[in-house]
């Protein structure tokens, strides 16, 4: 994604190249969001597993 030759080549294809760049950026941002959410959920589960059980 950071390769200048690749994105300059995509931009030289006009609208279709820009559309491809946009799709890739959206996919990367989506993956980052999913990874952050999973990290949060794993941390919550781990903390809950360390908590002593509450007596009724």
Describe, in plain words, how this protein is organized in 3D:
The chain has about 55 residues and is mostly helical. It has one domain. The chain is about 80% helix and about 0% strand. It has helices spanning about 5-10, 15-50. It is rod-shaped, with a radius of gyration of 21 Å. The termini are far apart. About 0% of the residues are buried.
Briefly, what is this?
It contains two helices and no strands. By secondary structure, the chain is mainly α.
Sketch the topology as an H/E string, one letter per element: HH
**Tally of helical segments:** 2
Strand content: under 5%
Helical amount: over 70%
Structural class: mainly alpha
Tell me the number of strands.
0
Q: What's the story with the biggest beta sheet?
A: none
Which secondary structure elements does this structure contain, and how are they paired or packed?
Layout: H1 4-11, H2 15-50
Helix pairs in contact: 1-2
């Amino acid at each position: 994604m950071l390769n200048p030759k690749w994105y300059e080549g995509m931009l030289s294809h006009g609208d279709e190249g820009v559309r491809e760049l946009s799709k890739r950026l959206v996919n990367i941002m989506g993956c980052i969001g999913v990874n952050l959410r999973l990290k949060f959920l794993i941390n919550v589960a781990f903390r809950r597993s360390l908590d002593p059980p509450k007596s009724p």
